[in-house]
């Protein structure tokens, strides 16, 4: 598929989900999922003028109702989250509540359901036409499954947004997940639903949690081809990551022809992230977001809901990556050589200098070359990334009428 650089730059009505109350999603001081990453993203996006654009609406999410949560989660699980939320000293580890990854805390249900409410708000805005694009950078809780919390995720807001779209009359939704970790929860929820195509591009489960997401995971018996997984080797950099993205994602989106794209943009694929082993730059992450926006423009009349996700370098990476996501969704991309606003840098030094102990970045990009080899140049069997790509294409492409060698 030809890359179309201009498609995502129209000033389309865009909803950005944000309220300071979202930072109540807080597992504690020593937990990697620092709530400050949301505040710093909103602050940087504001300093860049993105939240003041005439066509951008900043909307505060409500706490999702239990009935809404039960669209993708079991009633027993929602009840369990409520119990642990009210009494954190009685964890339910069988449901992933009160574990090392997901420590129990007072108000857990409300905080988690507010993030979920943000993605439901985004879906409602797209359905009623008040927005064409929507960003919930506080969402992306892709490890939560129907009955269990996992991997810092309690309620799966992306799955809830997808289900809301389906219930609202959308016939096909494509979910694209570029977090370093496999989007296992979202995949499992729609495993048997041929209306939803889940694509996950991630570090291999051989070296990273949750240990899933291999090429042979292709969807349930009645929905084969509805899941596609690209399990990249540890150490993969921008060139390999973007080659894999462009060798799999556009072709499947084109064949599936979704009416809306929902995407998850965990930025823990960055080379400075402390929890993962990929070697991606902010520049590469911005390139992937641009490509997804272009696919939404080409196939979905621009309808695109994007979420955050993982990302544990709180100062240097997350705010820049997600501000780029907001800018791309709003059709006002920020050039990579743009200086990071000095008022934001000063705010970080004054408020968080002692806590995080890092100097704020100077530019909105990492000043790297993100050139990648197009799949058209041919398959290299000696390249581990190419072998990964081919494994995925062989498993999934024929199920969509595509040739794994040439399409």
UniProtKB/TrEMBL annotation:
Domain Histone deacetylase: 31-327
Signal peptide: none
UniProt keyword annotations, A-Z: Acetoin catabolism
Source domain of life: Bacteria
SUPFAM superfamilies linked to this entry: Arginase/deacetylase
Pathway: Ketone degradation; acetoin degradation
InterPro entries (UniProt xref): AcuC (IPR003085), HDACs (IPR000286), His_deacetylse_dom (IPR023801), His_deacetylse_dom_sf (IPR037138), Ureohydrolase_dom_sf (IPR023696)
Any Pfam family: Hist_deacetyl
Entry annotated with the keyword tRNA processing: no
S-adenosyl-L-methionine found in the keyword field: no
Coiled coil regions in record: none
CDD domains given in the database record: HDAC_AcuC_like
Protein family (similarity comment): Belongs to the histone deacetylase family.
Protein known as: Acetoin utilization protein AcuC
């Amino acid at each position: 598929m030809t890359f179309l650089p201009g498609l995502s730059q129209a000033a389309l009505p865009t909803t950005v989900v944000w309220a300071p109350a979202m930072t109540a999603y807080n597992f504690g001081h020593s937990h990697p999922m620092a709530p400050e990453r949301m505040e710093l993203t909103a602050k940087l996006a504001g300093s860049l003028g993105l939240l003041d654009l005439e066509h951008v609406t900043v909307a505060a999410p409500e706490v999702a109702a239990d009935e809404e949560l039960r669209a993708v989660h079991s009633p027993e699980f929602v009840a369990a989250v409520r119990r642990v939320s009210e009494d954190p000293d009685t964890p339910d580890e069988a449901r992933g509540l009160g574990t090392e990854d997901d420590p129990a805390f007072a108000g857990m249900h409300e905080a988690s359901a507010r993030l979920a409410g943000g993605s439901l708000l985004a879906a409602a805005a797209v359905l009623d036409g008040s927005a064409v694009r929507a960003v919930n950078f506080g969402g992306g809780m892709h490890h939560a499954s129907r009955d269990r919390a996992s991997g810092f995720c309690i309620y799966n807001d992306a799955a809830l947004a997808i289900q809301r779209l389906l219930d609202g009359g959308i016939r096909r939704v494509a979910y694209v997940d570029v977090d370093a970790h496999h989007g296992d929860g979202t995949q499992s929820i729609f495993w048997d639903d041929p209306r939803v195509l889940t694509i996950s591009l991630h570090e291999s489960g051989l070296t990273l949690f949750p240990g899933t997401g291999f090429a042979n995971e292709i969807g349930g018996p009645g929905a084969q081809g509805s899941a596609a997984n690209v399990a990249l080797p540890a150490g993969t950099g921008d060139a390999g990551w973007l080659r894999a993205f462009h060798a799999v994602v556009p072709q499947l989106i084109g064949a599936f022809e979704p009416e809306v794209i929902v995407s998850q943009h965990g930025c823990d694929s960055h080379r400075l992230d402390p929890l993962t082993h990929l070697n991606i730059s902010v520049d590469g992450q911005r390139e992937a977001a641009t490509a997804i926006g272009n696919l939404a423009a080409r196939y979905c009349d621009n309808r695109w809901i994007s979420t955050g996700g993982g990302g544990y370098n709180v100062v240097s990476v997350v705010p820049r990556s997600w501000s780029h996501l907001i800018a791309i969704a709003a059709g006002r991309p920020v050039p990579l050589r743009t200086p990071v606003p000095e008022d934001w840098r000063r705010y970080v030094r004054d408020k968080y200098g002692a806590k995080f102990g890092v100097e704020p970045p100077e530019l909105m990009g990492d000043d790297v070359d993100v050139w990648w080899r197009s799949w058209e140049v041919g398959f290299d069997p000696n390249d581990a990334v190419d072998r990964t790509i081919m494994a995925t294409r062989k498993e999934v492409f024929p199920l969509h009428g595509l040739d794994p060698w040439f399409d």
